Amino acid sequence: MMGPQQVKDSVDNTRFRKERCRSGFTLIEIMVVMAIISMVMLLVIPRLPSSDQENLKISARTLASTLLYMQERAAPVGARYELAIDLGTDSVKILEISASGTIKAPSDPLLLKSVIKEGITVSDVRTFLGKVNDGQLQLAIGSEFITIHLRSPDGKFWTVMSFPSVGKIRAYEGYLEDPP
């Protein structure tokens, strides 16, 4: 039989073990906290400002995909598309030229969106006539080899090349004069 002191020690020992087991976090509590942190990051990260390098890459890829879309859309619609570029700025506009020869804004809403992000400029354009560094330029898309150099404010380049003979348009990192 246990004496009163032994019973008291046994109760204290049991209480101590229960308190010691409750001193940490359970796995479920940790998982709930991780889930909350993940959801907050999913909301915050897309709203963070992007870097000039990322804007340059996005602009080059958007320009390349827009040029390809213009080429593929021209034949079924029976129209021609041209790119109006103000060199040294981020102004790139798409013009639609109908079969009758009238120039107008494109009827396709996708072609009305801005192609180049703010801060990214068209450095120069090379066509079969040579390189153009400044001024305004209007290019027929899909009829000739074109090289467009985009530049970020920190001096980095991406090159967009149109290969009309094979119907491809590619975006390359860096300043390229000739296809790789």
Walk me through what this model shows:
This protein is an alpha+beta fold and 180 residues long. The protein folds into 2 domains: 4-47; 52-173, minor pseudopilin epsh domain (minor pseudopilin epsh fold, 3-Layer(bab) Sandwich). Helix content is 34%, strand content 28%. It has 3 helices and 9 strands, in the order H-H-H-E-E-E-E-E-E-E-E-E. It has helices spanning 4-21, 27-44, 52-77; strands spanning 80-86, 91-97, 103-104, 121-127, 130-132, 136-140, 146-151, 157-163, 168-173. The strands form 2 sheets. A 5-stranded antiparallel sheet has the order 5-4-7-8-9, covered by helices on one side. A 4-stranded antiparallel sheet has the order 3-2-1-6, covered by helices on one side. A hairpin with a 4-residue loop joins strand 1 and strand 2 (91-97). It is elongated. The N and C termini lie far apart (92 Å). The mean pLDDT is 82.
Summarize the structure.
This protein is an alpha+beta fold and about 180 residues long.
Approximately how much helix is present in the residues? 25-40%
Number of domains: 2
| Low-pLDDT windows of residues | none
Tell me the number of strands: 9
- Main sheet: strand order: 5-4-7-8-9
The CATH class designation of the largest domain is: Alpha Beta
Biggest sheet, in brief? 5 strands, antiparallel
User: Structural class from helices and strands?
Assistant: alpha+beta
Strand content: 25-35%
Listing every helix as H and every strand as E from the N terminus to the C terminus, the arrangement reads HHHEEEEEEEEE
Radius of gyration: 31 Å
The CATH architecture term of the largest domain is 3-Layer(bab) Sandwich
Cα distance, first to last residue?
A: 92 Å
What would you call the shape?
A: elongated
CATH topology descriptor of the largest domain: minor pseudopilin epsh fold
